[in-house]
Design brief:
Layout: E1 2-6, H1 25-37, E2 42-46, H2 63-70, H3 82-92, H4 94-104, E3 108-112, H5 125-131, E4 138-140, E5 143-147, E6 150-154, H6 171-188, H7 211-218, H8 221-237, H9 243-248, H10 251-262, H11 264-277, E7 291-294, E8 300-305, E9 313-318, E10 337-343, E11 347-354, E12 360-368
Helix pairs in contact: 1-4, 2-8, 3-5
């Protein structure tokens, strides 16, 4: 058995800002699918947030009021059926979808739902994926594979993140607000002398709350204050923020919240290592893992729990295949991480590979039976 694992592609609609470019990342994904197809025992595991369904869903209400407050032509939008959204995402990413469809006819392809595509694991999700041309892609809440005498457990990782563990946790609302309110607002602004505003960068920011200090750099003070008031009203209208908190929230308090969210990758790693030690249980109660693979944080992580020969355990976070930014003007992170896990009669091997250039090996792990 050989596993090939990628996470957080965020395939989206071309009508919205997309963090995945089909002519670039899509071609790399197609190359990966061709590699997996040549392996008679290969499996491709798509570890959550593969399609960005939450980005395609606007906030339930409050967009019209947001637009009026900021003099922007934005209005409330009705929800669309899931199959229509998936068909639109396929039309925007034909290279990626055709590669996955072709591979699923030749090898096993498994999709583990994340918080941005949790809809696929709910009623109607299977039918919507079929309608998008991927009827042979298996859907699993998590992937658990036995390799030699080792358990490999693969989860998206959002169930440890309170803002994204549930649809009503707040993270999903913020994603809709970014795509359907903040980006249209920025695109409507007149150019500002001596300041370059890049609306597309907003959805690549991680964590998403980093939008506050970035916009404080881009917007004139009076406009920024109006924006904050309208944004808080929109979050309150959609249940992502309680009204009393909105009354006392300031940019300084938002930056304090940002610091906590910025540590998400560290908290995820600490939880994962505790699970490897047996000190913490995993969501869904899989077998105790020897290799634990997560995504969600958009930050690559690799940690080995030491032990006697043959008993070392591995934690990997796969980062993201989508564009990632942390500030207002710096370079985008364009790495495309792939995890390969394979085993022969005596040894399990894991290799973290960067696929955007020369398929460079970043980390390697070997453990004997």
């Amino acid at each position: 058995m050989a596993l090939h694992v990628v996470s957080d592609l965020h395939l989206g609609e071309s009508a919205l800002v997309s963090m995945f470019r089909d002519d670039d990342q899509g071609r790399r994904l197609s190359e990966l699918c061709e590699q997996v197809a040549r392996d008679p025992e290969g499996e491709l595991i798509l570890l959550g947030d593969i399609v960005d369904l939450t980005a395609a869903c606007p906030p339930h209400k409050g967009l019209t009021q947001f637009g009026v407050a900021l003099d922007v032509p934005i209005e409330d939008k009705p929800p669309r059926p899931l199959p229509a959204i998936l068909r639109s995402i396929r039309e925007s990413n034909p290279i990626a979808f055709e590669a996955l469809e072709k591979l699923s006819g030749r090898a096993k392809v498994t999709l583990v739902c994340g918080n941005h595509d949790r809809h696929l694991g709910e009623p109607g999700g299977r039918e919507a994926l079929d309608a998008a041309g991927l009827p042979k892609v298996a859907l699993e809440p998590m992937a658990v594979r036995r390799m030699l005498d080792k358990w490999v457990v693969l989860q998206h990782g959002h169930l440890w993140d309170p803002a994204n563990a549930r649809a009503a946790g707040g993270g999903e609302v913020l994603t809709g607000v970014l795509h359907h309110a903040i980006v249209p607002f920025l695109r409507h602004l007149a150019p500002r002398f001596n300041v370059h505003i890049d609306p597309d960068r907003i959805v690549a920011l991680r964590p998403e709350e980093r939008v506050i200090p970035v916009l404080q750099r881009w917007l004139k003070p009076g406009i920024f204050d109006r924006f904050i008031d309208a944004l808080l009203d929109l979050l309150v209208a959609n249940g992502a923020l309680a009204r009393p908190l909105a009354w006392v929230t300031t940019p300084s308090l938002l930056r304090w919240r940002l610091k906590d969210d910025d540590d998400l990758w560290e908290r995820a790693g600490a939880s994962a290592l505790a699970a490897l030690e047996g000190a913490r249980s995993l969501p869904g109660k899989p077998p105790p893992p020897d290799v634990l693979v997560l995504g969600h944080t958009h930050v690559i992580d690799w940690a080995v729990q030491e032990g006697r020969p043959g008993a070392q355990r591995l934690y990997v976070n796969l980062g993201t295949w989508s564009h990632r930014a942390t500030d207002a003007a710096g370079p985008m992170d364009a790495m495309l991480p792939l995890l390969r896990i394979e085993a022969d009669a005596r040894q399990l091997r894991a290799e973290l590979v960067e696929c955007s250039g020369r398929w460079q090996t970043l980390q390697r792990f070997e453990v004997d039976r």
